[in-house]
Specification:
- The structure is a single chain.
- The protein has one helix spanning about 50-70; strands spanning about 15, 20-25, 35-40, 75-80, 95-100.
- The protein is of the alpha+beta class.
- The longest helix is centred in the middle third of the chain and has 20 residues, at about 50-70.
- About 20% of the residues are buried.
């Protein structure tokens, strides 16, 4: 299986630490959409070690601070786990998606919007 996150070219990597990398999404939902990815190939968030989770969260925090300086103020963080959730790259990765006033008509429900009929409650 060819994994797009296992052999990244160095110029794609925007930040890293011992256990994780951060890069910009090639198909961004919004400007600044970024991915934190463990260096170890695991398909599921639930297979990560606590150390890998901390490493990914560290990079998400650094990127969030960069985006705050550029005017972003709100974010969604998400992980797709399994085919039925929409996962298409089976190397775990965490999305940091900046959100902007007016980017959707009604943002209420946030990540609940993955099932549109459940977004409003």
């Amino acid at each position: 299986m060819d994994c797009p996150f296992c052999n990244l070219s160095p110029e794609r990597i925007k930040a890293e630490n011992a256990l994780a990398i951060l890069l910009y999404d090639l198909y961004p939902v919004s400007e600044g959409h970024s991915l934190a990815i463990p260096k170890r190939h695991v398909s599921s968030y639930f297979d990560l070690t606590n150390e890998e989770l901390l490493a990914m969260n560290e990079l998400i925090g650094v990127r969030k601070n960069e985006l705050l300086k550029r005017g972003s103020s709100d974010f969604n963080i998400g992980v797709n786990i399994g085919e039925n959730s929409g996962q298409t790259v089976f190397h775990c990765h965490m999305h940091l998606i900046p959100r902007f006033k007016g980017d959707v008509e009604n943002p209420k429900g946030g990540v609940r919007g993955v099932i549109p009929s459940k977004q409003s409650y």
